[in-house]
Every structure is written in structure tokens, then in C-alpha cells.
Amino acid sequence: MDRIRAALRPETASIRRRLVAALLLTTIGSLVFATGAFADFLTPESGGSSNADQIDSLYKIILYVAIVVFAVVEGALFYSLFKFRAKKNPNAAQIHGNTRLEISWTIGAALILVVLAAVTFAKLSAIQDPPNSSASGLALAQGVLTASADEPSPPNGKKLTICVTGRQYIWRYTYGDGCKTNAFGLPYSYEEMVAPANTTVVLDIQATDVIHSWWIPKLGGKKDAVPGYHNYTWFKAPKVGEVYVGQCAELCGRNHADMTARVRIVSPAAYQAWIDGQRRSIQAADSQVQRLRTQLQSDGDL
Ligand SMILES: [Cu+2]
After folding, report:
1. pLDDT tens digits for 41-72?
2. CB 160 within 8 A of CB 196
């Protein structure tokens, strides 16, 4: 019996090794080939709004500089490893610093940082500050003045405000000025936001229960939705008919993965028609509930 067991042992070990390797490969494969992992290969997604484009180009500038620095440093390292290898140079040369070289690479590194900081600050305003809506955008009245100092506003003050509220496990959108303080009576939708093209849309992001995170990568940066706080972002999408997708980017509970979001860009006229229809159907549903309530009360059931 012992002999049989001993004979089987190497085989069991090899099966175990293969199983571990298969498990490892499957894990790596599912991480790498997940839909979002290489959404735009190595760089951020862009193309839906100018702030996303600016984030993408800033990322690429820094990435290319980093690639050059990496290539130079690793190149020098491998060159030295080969050129001064122990087999050819059994007695290493005794060098006590090279002042000129040390000063130059310190200045070089500092210069790279200064250039990157300057480029970042030059691009920052285009990422943070929304532009005016285009002439072909939705006709907007002057925005309502708010006391918030960090709420982005275009130079002419005309913007469409949409409140984005995260809750376990769905996004709610309330359309129009006033959604920040009193959403009652305003049109709303869930999961899919409808927005007019070429119009500056400012999102007021909130949460009712736990921390969520709003992120539609093609429409700009990610913003946390924190209960009790208002965070802001904006987009101005030029392409009618596009649908941009994203999902909650903060682990918010067991159904976090189902908390998806879509933004559908329509023409300003189609937006106006949609918002009117939405308002009408919400009012119809409200009055239906009101009728039911009155009926139940008169029947003595409520
Ligand atoms: Cu969430």
C-alpha cells in the first residue's frame, strides 16, 4: 500500500502544480480581460467632453516623459552591468564621485519636475472650469446664484444643473436649478441620464446613504458622492446620439457591481421634449397615487 502511495505522490504533486498554474492564469486573465481593465488600453478614456480630453492629454504627456526617463535610467543600468561586469573587471575601479555629473542629473531631474508642474497647471483650468454652452446648445436662463464657492460655473453663468444622487444601488438624476435645495416637483430619472448636446451641464453630486462615486470615464474625472456633502463636476458633450457608460467607482455594498450609469446625449430640442414628457408622466403618476389615497381614505382603509 505504502509503495503504491509513494508511486502516486509525484503525480499528485504535478497535478497540484498544474491546478495552481491554471488558477493563477485564470485570475490574471479575468483581471486583464475584464471590460473596464483596458478600456482605452493604457491611457484614460476621452472623446465625450473637453475636460476628459484634457485629462487624457495631460496623462499622455506625463507618461511619455516617464517612458523616456525609464529608458535612460534602465539603459544606463544595463550598459554598466554589461560593460563593467565582474568577469572582465575583477578589480573594480575606485571612483569617488563625479561632481559635474551629479550636479547635472540633479538639475535635469528638477527641470523635468518644473516642466511637468507648469504643464499641469496650464491644463488645470481647462479641466476644472467649464466653458460656455455653444450657440447650438440648450437655451438657458441665467443660473440661480448659490453660496457655494466650489460649484463650477461657465464665464456667462448659464448652465444646466443636474443633481446626481447615489443610493444603494442606483443613481437618481434630478433636472434643473433648485435640485440642490429642493428637488420636489422637478423632473427626475433613474440610471440613465438624458442631457442636451453642446450645453454646459454641471453635476451636483450627493449621496443619501453611504459613499458612492460617480464616474463616466469619457465625460471627465471621477467624483465621490458623500452623504452630507456636495461635490461637483461638469461636462459638455458635442456628439448627439452617443451613450456614455460608467458605474459606481466606490465599493458601496453587496450590489455595488450592479450600480451602473448611462448618459444619453440628445439634441437640445429632443431634450426639451423628453423633459416635458418626463414631467407629465411623473405628474400623472402622482395624481393617480393621490386619487388612490383619497379613495382608500374614503373607504376607511387608510
Ligand atoms: Cu455605489
Report:
1. 788 889 899 999 999 999 999 999 999 999 99
2. yes
Residues 6+ apart with CB under 8 A from 30: none
* Residue 62 backbone zone (phi > 0: left; psi -120 to 50: alpha; other: beta): alpha
Enter the pTM of the model: 0.79
Out of 128, 148, 172, pick the residue that ends a domain. 128
Q: Which residue has the cell 578589480?
A: 91
The Å distance, Cα 54 to ligand 1 centre, comes to 26
Identify the domain containing residue 112 by its residue range: 50-128
Q: Is 47 exposed, middle or buried (0-12, 13-18, 19+ CB in 10 A)?
A: middle
- Verify that 280 and 169 share a domain, yes or no: yes
Those residues whose beta carbon sits under 5 angstroms from the ion ligand 1 are 212, 248, 252, 259
Gap from CA of 137 to ligand 1 centroid (Å): 31
